[in-house]
Prior knowledge:
Layout (H helix, E strand, L loop, with lengths): L3 E5 L4 H12 L3 E6 L12 E4 L5 H7 L6 E4 L7 H4 L5 H22 L3 E7 L29 H20 L3 E6 L2 E2 L12 H11 L5 E5 L5 E2 L2 E2 H12 L7 E3 L5 E2 H12 L4 E5 L13 H7 L7 H19 L1
Parallel strand pairs: 1-2, 1-4, 2-3, 4-5, 5-6, 6-11, 7-10, 8-13
Antiparallel strand pairs: 9-12
Helix pairs in contact: 1-7, 4-5, 6-8, 6-10, 8-10
The site of nicotinamide-adenine-dinucleotide has 25 residues, from helix 1, helix 4 and strand 5.
Amino acid sequence: MLKRILVCGAGGFIGSHLVRRLKDEGHHVTGIDLKAPEFAPSPADDFILGDLRDPAVVRDLMRQPYDELYQLAADMGGAGYLFTGANDAAVMHNSAQINLNIAEAAHRAGVGRLFYASSACIYPEHNQLDPENPNCVEDSAYPANPDSEYGWEKLFSERLYQSYARNHDLNCRIARYHNIYGPQGTWTGGREKAPAALCRKVAEAPDGGEVEIWGDGLQTRSFLFIDDCVEATIRLTRSDFAGPVNIGSEEMVSINSLARLVIDLSGKPLRIRNVPGPEGVRGRTSDNRLIRARLGWEPTVDLRAGMARTYGWISDQVSQSA
Ligand code: NAD
């Protein structure tokens, strides 16, 4: 059945890929964001440039009925943006304001289903000190101790949507994304995340040069390719399972190994140099037992294949901007 769908944050990385997939399925899609997608025009039926911090904008948006609402808008960036402390007030204020407005307006408008993009950054720092054995099982979120204000805001907003579900029957789905990457994501400017930043550094480095890695590079992470993220997001939204549930990959690597993988894909003779920089937690990977059991979902693109596609796209961007 064709649906009417609203995507908040439709100009961003995940939002723009999600809109494309929903349009391929034939739905009527409205997108809203502060900015249009950077790398390709949005295929949304209506794309609204608007500020979701403004309650009047959000109320106006909900004058039409929606079967599904995907809430991806957030004040967002990689470690260089979220983990230095310099943007904490903006991150807390902007993202909380967006979610407060959307929860209230979605409830009043009687939106069919609401998906909220939370993050692995909600997990307590004390469970992520050992790079080989991080614990990110869903019910380890409490007692809460995220290592960033970004994580605290995500946890607050999870609880906000759960409160609207409890008191007002808002039909919510909550996912905790773990490091989503792929083509057409931010790759320069300070908000880019580790996979894109590494691809850019490798693409820009002259043969025989060095690639700088923040920290000792032994911190571990896992990375999920964008197409897998979009599939899991839609599957969760249309299921009868509310979450919160991890959407991520269990293929854990150190940041130095990820850098070596990108260097290998580039075919360039490059060395790694570890330098001081913001790192986040020591270890983090997705725990997919719950999503496997409830939705039968597994990632389908492995890290090497996904990074090959991402490196190809970013090295083209670097050449075009030179
Ligand atoms: P992104 O920054 O590319 O997209 C977020 C979008 O929200 C941006 O286009 C931004 O302009 C928009 N936005 C911000 N403030 C707004 C406002 N006041 N009004 C309207 N639009 C506004 O980020 P993304 O990687 O696409 O992430 C999407 C969501 O998933 C975010 O909520 C993010 O926190 C969450 N998430 C992402 C990852 C990841 O690895 N990319 C991991 C965990 C969680």
